[in-house]
Design a protein that fits this description.
Blueprint (H helix, E strand, L loop, with lengths): L8 E8 L4 E8 L9 E4 L3 E7 L5 H10 L4 H10 L7 E7 L4 E5 L8 E5 L2 E5 L6 H12 L5 H14 L9 E7 L11 E7 L5 H16 L8 E2 L2 H13 L6 H11 L11 E2 L1 H9 L1
Antiparallel strand pairs: 1-2, 1-8, 2-9, 3-4, 4-5, 5-6, 7-8, 9-10, 11-12
Length: about 280
């Protein structure tokens, strides 16, 4: 059987303890990197497995983290028990923000990583250490922003610094938080993948913008009161799009078609994002 190609990759596993979020972002000259590298569980930690990747590091690492094992010990146990450890690369962040990164001695140059408070950044087959340096520096410089945005900024900075020396092909982003995903019934806040694209980091950022539009939230204090004039406008615009009848029903049907139903709560007040999208159409 032919040997599989290495997941030549840069990645960052990270957490925002204040926001109770954990996540991983990654880019690679490899098809569908998001199917192998990133793993995360809220309150538990995040794992990135790459190079001649061992995908079992993901679920096995999370299981160790779930038991309260520190990131450094998780990395040690996973690699100690793996005969292929010299060709593996791994990043781990635990539920307390502890971190560890591991690069096997046989990983293709340039390969290495940096671990710090709440992050582990690593890469292999890179142009040089500047790619990983950019991941670490950007994570620190973006403190206070939402974790998904920080991780996307990290990927962009790493690519600008040189990235994977074989080029670009795929990218992925996952962020988790307990009960903060779709309809409050999922722990997955963001799970976006670009499997094959000439500029995957840019495409991933575009998808995240679309995700924020469809599934983001606007503070209630910014919602718009629907007066008689606005009601008339809404009814007219909806009718022009083929949604007539009772306003609340028509708006709900249109929002369902456009995947904006999570931004509705009756017709007494309106999320400005919904109004903007309706006017744009």
């Amino acid at each position: 059987m032919a040997e599989l190609p290495p997941v030549a990759t840069y990645s960052i596993a990270a957490c925002d303890l204040e926001g109770a979020q954990w996540g991983v972002a990654t880019q690679s000259k490899f098809l569908a990197v998001g199917s192998i590298v990133p793993w995360a569980e809220p309150g538990v930690g995040a794992v990135a497995t790459q190079a001649y990747a061992n995908p079992r590091y993901g679920p096995e690492g999370l299981a160790l983290l779930r038991d309260g094992t520190a990131a450094a010990e998780v990395a040690k146990r996973l690699t100690d028990n793996d005969e292929g450890r010299d060709q593996r690369q791994l990043g781990v962040v635990d539920g307390r923000g502890g971190s560890a990164t591991y690069t096997g001695a046989a990983c293709m140059e340039w390969a290495g990583g940096i671990a710090g408070d709440c992050f582990a950044a690593q890469g292999n087959i890179l142009v040089g250490p500047e790619t990983v340096d950019a991941l670490a520096a950007t994570f620190a410089a973006t403190a206070g922003r939402p974790l998904a945005e920080r991780l996307l900024e990290c990927l962009a900075a790493a690519q600008a610094a040189g990235g994977d020396r074989r080029g670009q092909q795929s990218a992925a982003l996952i962020v988790v938080e307990r009960d903060a995903g779709y309809a409050g019934l999922s722990d997955v806040v963001v799970d976006l993948r670009v499997d094959d694209h000439p500029a995957p980091v840019e495409e991933l950022a575009r998808l995240h913008e679309l995700h924020a539009l469809l599934f983001g939230t606007t503070p209630a204090t910014s919602w718009i009161a629907v007066d008689d004039e606005l009601r008339a406008e809404l009814a007219e615009r909806l009718a022009e799009l083929g949604y007539d009848g009772d306003l609340e029903d028509a708006l709900a049907r249109w929002a369902g078609t456009e995947n904006l139903e999570e931004r509705l709560d009756g017709v007494e007040r309106l999320d400005p994002v919904v109004l903007e999208e309706l006017r744009r159409r």
